[in-house]
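Can you give me the bound-state structure? Components:
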Amino acid sequence: MFTPAIISESPVSTPWGNIGTSSIISKTVKTHEPLFCEGDEATHVYEILEGVVCCYKIFSDGRRQVITFAFPGDLVGFGHGKGYRFDCDAVGTARVNAIPTSSLLRAVKERPDLGEKLLEMATSEVASMQNHSLVLGRKSALEKIAYFLVELCERSADCSADSIELKLPMTRADIADFLGLTVETVSRSLTKLRVKNLIELPHPATLFVRDIEALRDLAECEETFH
Amino acid sequence: MFTPAIISESPVSTPWGNIGTSSIISKTVKTHEPLFCEGDEATHVYEILEGVVCCYKIFSDGRRQVITFAFPGDLVGFGHGKGYRFDCDAVGTARVNAIPTSSLLRAVKERPDLGEKLLEMATSEVASMQNHSLVLGRKSALEKIAYFLVELCERSADCSADSIELKLPMTRADIADFLGLTVETVSRSLTKLRVKNLIELPHPATLFVRDIEALRDLAECEETFH
DNA sequence: CGTGAGGTTGATCGCTTTCAACGGAGGTGG
DNA sequence: CCACCTCCGTTGAAAGCGATCAACCTCACG
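Here's the bound-state model for the whole set.
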C-alpha cells in the first residue's frame, strides 16, 4: 500500500473546511494515483473540488467493480470502519480536500447540523446505490449506457440544451466496470447510439448528446431522485 | 395505493420504542401485504420484529428488482424524502413496529446518540448496497446464489455448525429479482449446488448447508464487513 | 519514428434467458 | 371426499445477448 502522490498542498476553506480545525489540506492527485487503498487505515475523508475520482473494488481473480464516480462537491471515504473497504483513484487530475476523519467526527459532536448533513449525504448515497443496483440487475447493455449518459448529463450543467457536450474523463474500462459490462460492449453500445443519431462521438473522450429524451426512454429513467 | 392490512396493534417498547412518544404501534402484516408503496407519503419507519420483509422496485415494463430483504432488527423506510422510493412487502407473516417519521426526527434532535445510531445504520446500509452492486455486476449465477446463501447463513444463528439449516421464506422469484436472475436460473443453480453436495434441499423452503466453506469460495466472500 | 495504451470492429462461444412442459402442494367448491 | 385449479418449483430445448478472442486503428509520447 503506497500513499497518494501529493502534488501540492495548501490550507483551504469550503463547506467542510470551516469545521474549526486547521488540519484540512488541499491536495492535487494525478491520473490513476490513489486517494486511498482498500485496507488502509481510514484516516481521511476527501471532498472533491475538481476533477473526478473513481471508487472500485478488485476481486481476487482480477475482476473489478467500479462502485461510484465522485464529482466536485462529493465526499468520499466516509463511513468506512477502521480500514477503507475499497480503492479510490483519480480519473484524470483531481483536486481534493483531505479532512482528517477524527476532526470531522469531533466537529459533528459539537455541531448537530453537521451530523444532519452527513446523515443526509449517507441517505442520498443509499438512494444512489439502490438505483445503481436496479441498473446492474435488470437493464440491458444499451439501457445501461443510456442511463449512464443521462446521469452524466444531469450532473453537468445545462441539461436542457439542444445538444449537451459531455467530457468523458474515464476510460471505457472504467465505464464497463461501473456498469458490469466489458469494454467491447461499451464501445459497441456507444456506436449503436451514434448510428441511431442519439449521440455524436467526435473523439473518444468528447460526446454530444443529441436526443436526451430518447436516451431517457431507453434508460427508463423514471426516478431521478437527485 | 392501499394501506397495509393491520392484523393487530399494541404499544411496545424496543430499541427504537423508547424515544419518548407513545405513537409507536406494533403491527402484524401477512404474506404479500404491503408495509408501504412507492410514492406513498413517507410517514413511518418500520422496525422489523419478526419475519422478513422485501423492498423492491417495479419498472414500467414489469421488470422487478428486489433492493433488500430486511430481517428482525432492521429498520426500513428511513431516508426516503417525502414519498417512499420503492415498495415494501411482507414475505410470510411479519411483525413490525411502525414509528412515525416525525417522532423519530424529533427524538434525534433531542438525543444525539440516536442520530449517531441512525448514521451508523445508514453507513452500514451503504456498505451493504455497495457489496450488492459487486454481486450484481460481476458475479455468475452460481456465484450469486452461493453468495446469497452465505449471507443468509451469517444472518442466522449458529453459522459454525457442520450443517446449517436455512429457512427460505421468500420465493424463487424474490431471490431471482434480488440477484438479477430468472427463477429458472435460480432453480438450476440450487440444483447444481445440490448435485455438488454443498447443500441439501429436502423441501423448496428448507435448505441445509453442508459445506459453507465451499460456498464461500464460490461466492468469493472476502469481505463480510457485517 | 517506434512503441504502447486505449478504442473500435468482427467472429465465435457460452451462459443465461426464454419458451414450454410437467409435477406437487394447497385451496375451493361440487 | 374428491375433482379441479392455481401457484410455485423444476427440468428440458432453443434462442439471444454479452463475453471472449483477435485484429486493426488512432494518438500520445519518448
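A couple of observations. The helical segments of chain B are 101-110, 112-138, 141-155, 172-179, 183-195, 212-219. Strands of chain B lie at 9-11, 25-29, 34-36, 44-58, 64-70, 75-76, 87-100, 164-167, 199-203, 206-209.
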